[in-house]
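Hi Y.,

Following your request, here is the sequence exactly as I used it, all 329 residues.
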Amino acid sequence: MSLKIVDSKTTEHAHRRNPGFPLDLDWVGRVRMNRSALERRAGTIGARRTVKKDYQLAWLLKAITLIDLTTLNADDTAGRVERLCSKARHPLRRDIIEKLGVENLRILPGAVCVYHTFVKTAVAALEGSGIPVAAVSTAFPHGLAPVETKLKEIEASVKDGAKEIDIVIERGMVLRGDWQALYDQVKAFRKACGDAHIKTILGTGELATQTNIAKASLVCMLAGADFIKTSTGKEKVNANLVTSLTMIRMIRWFAEETGIEIGYKPAGGIATAGDALKYMALIKEELGTHWLQPHLFRFGASSLLTDIERQLEHGLTGHYAADYRQPMV
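Below is the corresponding structure, written out as tokens. Let me know if you'd prefer a different format.
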């Protein structure tokens, strides 16, 4: 079977890491979001745009490379993390890979995301695979701990081998409009990360308005964030297309003003292949095809890979497999 897959080399753009910029409160003050307009635009995604047949299979293969394969449960164990890492190394069954004719492509997730406690376990399990480990830090998921404690947690995760750090902002700073405090804290987190990339989790479901979300996105980017991320996955409201549209438009505005491209990571509730295709279509239309690369776009997900694998098998056989044929952990 021959899939129409775009070679990533044809869409590569030079990428500079965000160096951070001075806090521009005038810019922050000019930010306004029209929720009803955002909702109308978001409603068009998936309703009239889709990909079919071989193109859909190719997009789903691309989606696998954009997943931060995640386990952030209270009952996580070293064994569960090792099994997740094994799945990351081999995200698709061999027979599916052979039938799709993609043996020569590197179809691996963007990262494996775990609690700090399991960073060493994940690093050891992924050794030689080239898959980075992302650690959630800074008192995930609430972010309410002394700054010194949060900085030490970041430093410990980096020391243990994490290449990416997902930090949590204090939502109260946004709700109070204390942009200087938010900027200073994220800047300190960025410094503690060193060479590890920093993803700032906004907890968008708890920020009250789309304008708050947009302003928080901008402040985090000015402070040096490499990615802005919607949610911890623990809030009542997690990723959705309206919030995503707000955040990626701030990313576009930031790129236009600074020349720096920031990554975007929706997380929480993205569980189906159909969900993934909608987010990928949104990114393609709002930011461009080249943003659909792991250094600029990720899904935070724990069950998405299972459904993608089922959909790929369905595309090959016309039948949906039982869940046990694509075990996760």
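The beta strands are 67-70, 111-115, 133-136, 164-168, 197-201, 227-229, 263-265, 299-301.

Thanks again,
Q.
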